[in-house]
Design goal:
9 helices, 0% strand, globular
């Protein structure tokens, strides 16, 4: 399945505007497209996270059909042990393609400047992206990650003081910190991402 938003300059600018990792942003859009499509109808297994996501966010007719198929598979004992989650597999494949595209975009000086001045990359995707970049672009990426670390550290310190006083305004910083540290929800970086538990990041 093709990504909803390719990693183009427009896609990167959109992620920068939302203060998100461009890879996480593209994968979030891709995950939404999976929920809106019939692509998961033949799946034999979903991890805990994606099963609940399907129940909560997919079109009702698609979700009902998927769950009926899963019930039938369970009844026929075709899925005694968990097999790879269909959404995890699709997202993993798309993640590799998006990382390659973003690495190519880093050769564009306009993209590199935009990212260095205003962009962010989560730690997990930063590590994977760095391996795909030449040394000069790796230095740019290191500066992006270091700047984001400093920003988040300052925002979290300020938010902690406000929260101690009983005010919780500005809690969006917690979501930004979680993405930076762990990537978006539903993007696993474990060796065996699919299990009966919620996806947990390293």
């Amino acid at each position: 399945m093709k990504a909803v938003r390719a990693i183009s300059y427009a896609g990167i600018a959109h992620a920068v505007e939302k203060n998100r990792c461009p890879v996480c942003n593209a994968l979030k859009d891709f995950e939404s497209s999976l929920l809106e499509s019939a692509g998961a109808r033949d799946a034999a297994y979903f991890c805990n996270y994606h099963g609940w996501l399907l129940a909560r966010a997919a079109r009702a007719d698609i979700a009902a059909e998927v769950f009926r198929n899963l019930l039938q598979l369970w009844k026929e004992a075709k899925t005694v042990a968990p097999v790879p989650c269909e959404f995890c597999r699709e997202v993993c494949e798309e993640e590799k393609a998006v990382l390659t595209e973003l690495a190519d975009q880093f050769s564009n000086s306009t993209v590199a400047e935009l990212m260095e001045e205003h962009g962010t990359v989560c730690l997990a995707h930063g590590i994977e992206l760095s391996a795909r970049l030449p040394a000069s672009s790796q230095n740019v990426l290191a500066r992006i990650v270091a700047r984001r670390y400093r920003e988040l550290d300052a925002y979290l310190a300020a938010f902690a003081k406000i929260a101690e006083a009983g005010h919780h305004v500005g809690g969006g910083v917690l979501g930004h910190a979680a993405e930076f540290l762990f990537s978006q929800r539903g993007i696993s970086h474990e060796e065996a991402p699919c299990s009966n538990r919620d996806l947990q990041k390293k």
